[in-house]
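3.2 Worked example (two chains)
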Amino acid sequence: MRLPPDVLVRIAADRTMAEEFAALCDFGGRLAGTESERAAMEYVAKRGSLASGVPCTSLPVSYGGWRAVKAELRLSHGVLAACHPLVRSTPTASGGLNAEVIDLGRGTPEEFEAHREEIRDRIVLVRHELMFAAGTIHRRRKYNMALEAGAVGFLIASPLAGALVTGSSGRNEGDAGIPAMGIAPETAASLARTAAGWAQATLVIETEEYEARTSTLLFDLPGKTDEVVVLSAHVDGHDINESAMDNASGVATALAVIRMIAPHVKGWRRGVRLAFFSAEEWALTGSARYVASLSDVEKRRIALNINLDTVAGGECLTALTSGFGGLEPFLLETAGANGHALRCVRPLQMNSDHANFALAGIPAFRLVAGYDNPSANVRLVLTPGDLRDKVTEAELIKATQLTAALLAAGCNAPSSTATQWRKLDRSYPLRAKARRPRMRASDPQAQ
């Protein structure tokens, strides 16, 4: 199915998309539980109603709130180094955590295994990797390997000179965990082991934990049947930057798509449910709560989830298809028919909200920019560099045009095609429970 030329022209001329993207960045990083996030969610609720022409349904979401009160890293001789606590890090004792540091370089499973006898009671130091690449070993996996090996603390160094790195520690709600911080590569270099012995560091992290609430925002546009395609994006981000690529780009794209297709949906086979989640950076909590609340009948009515997360910051777009090999021919054919190049990557990646739909057996994919391109601006995600100047208008237009084409084709595909979407690669370990499992060293990567 090809989009009508007038729709493509209107998308290219849509100045509202750029305005909404800038407005989302103006709110700041939108870390869940902050005023930045609350204001952004209110804004998205209003803009979603204007774009779709339907009222917003706001579903309350409870989650374990967390905020850092103090974070400090002292090196030898009391020298202070810049640091940033990872989300949900456990606090240190009142006097801080002082221990030797073991540098495991990249932090591969092989490196952890080779140094297993040396890790216990030390602080593990590893490196942050390009998030959107084949073979990436994710931060949460490294954190869990450190925890399982008996480390007392966790440091992760940014690959970018002078830059800190943030993200979720990987600690689940209620777990003890270990204190975790992001640091700059220069600090990591100063913590190298020498002939004099292991370097030492003191971590000080003070936190508050509380029962928090956010919302899932839904906008329903009915089609001719009770089936729907869910178009989703997460609003929340991190307080270290503007969270422009991750994920103001996805939210602005979703709003623009709905603005363009809303008048047409009533004539389509399937309706559209536009969903905006928060607490995504909290181990995908918002979408996990939503999917878990659906009945089996409601899950069967969802033919497809199109999840937009970091759809700008790189020239090329990739669909992470969560093991649904039967979905890929449809995506590639639709993209090609509309003049877009698209790559499909099949393994389930627990790095955004599409994963919770996939775990429930719902065909789902994440559209992401810059996959496998170490020079793309997406390398700056989770660093202070995730700012609006890393996103071009052309990237937003491309993401909007491709998403609109995929959404229209998905809503109008015959039932036989939709049945093919549910076919999983035989090697895909489908886990049917709609919840995010605790990450272990052997699990797929997670964001």
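3.2.1 Second chain
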Amino acid sequence: METAGIKNHNFSIHLSENTRKTIFIGALVVCVFPVMSPPLALLLGLIIAQFIDNPYAQLTHKATHWLLQASVVGLGFGMNIVSALQAGREGILFTIASIITVLTVGLLAGRFLKIDKTTSFLISAGTAICGGSAIAALSPVVKAEEKQISVSLGVIFILNSIALFLFPVIGHHLHLSQTQFGLWCAIAIHDTSSVVGAASHYGAQALQVATTVKLARALWIIPLAFVSIIAFKTGSKTVKIPYFIGLFILAMLVNTYVPFIKPIVPYLTSIAKIGLTLTLFLIGSGLSFKKLKSVGIVPLFQGVMLWVLISGFSLFAILKLA
């Protein structure tokens, strides 16, 4: 039974196409203003997704990919390479231990829960390394079907949305330092967008640590892809290397060793932060209730279990080493 003007199954309000587009563009413009933080932008996107649907779904999917990468590179102009390398060294042991642990537990959990091997692997890889980027890079390697990719991405994006709001609250409650919170974000939050969003909300130093460790973590896509070729016996020779990480490092080098760029650095980083806010709005706008419902409870359970494992394990280790 439908309430007048509203579909109960996904809450969509019946509006003309032009009205939906106007509301969507208006919300997008609001995200450009400083009053809109990344978490609020994500929340606004989620509201848009539930009530009017995204009228530019195909376009925003592509825009999100490029906008996120450009924003991350732009944030590199506000970071010092020497400090970043120090942060990366501190996070490497956590990275190795957490990746091995999550992939192993994910494999076993997938078998126990009777989730198909490819979906289970993509959820595990997305949790272990860098969320949607890992899933996008590994999907062609393991010959994943569209449904398997959609379910995996759905699980990751649901948990990302929760983490963006939850992690800063926990961090403040436990009085985590900037470095501790940045390291925890980089290890325990799936996607780079949500890692950067949560860390930027916590502080500048947390942002530097989180971004550096997360992007160093993303490089593990490459060896995992080659292992996947053997494990899945696909014979694929296609491995997508996340080249924007190199541009991010180049931006840090320029900021550290090219003095005349200093006057424009605040403008570059401000534009990058706006880009990140827009990215999170676009991600939220694609997470309708209908799409969330299509994920299914069993794959979501696996994703939650792995996320709780990596979050708890890394937080415990960080607090013990404090």
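3.3 Remarks
Residues 234 and 246 are 28 Å apart (CA to CA).
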